[in-house]
Amino acid sequence: MLSNQLKFVGYWPKDLVDIDGASNVGWGAFTNPGTTGVNPSMGSGHKPDHVYNHAAYFRDMKYLKKELEPQIPADTELETFVDPCYAIDDLHYSGSPYWGYDFFFGGPGGSCGN
Hints:
- By secondary structure, this protein is mainly β.
- It has one helix at 14-17, and strands spanning 56-58, 63-64, 70-71, 87-93, 101-106.
- It has one domain (32-114).
- InterPro entries: Glutamic_endopeptidase, Neprosin.
């Protein structure tokens, strides 16, 4: 995809969410094994390996405080939750204005002890 075709996703206006504030913010994905008990792949199906065209990723993550100033997450504020079928990797501020705070995630799925 060309950079002039990129679309921002993930903005939820206050009137849609209808809350006064949140104590936590999260980014993520999940899968549902359904009746088969086998988890589908997530993202591209590859576990993260620091290569942008292998695993799925979020980039330039920010959140807004009451002052409506974009905030970059601090490493010390983060927790990760990962199912055995998937992985998350390289959760950090990249130092690049294009990539910003980013992380890789995904995996092949399969039977994961559901």
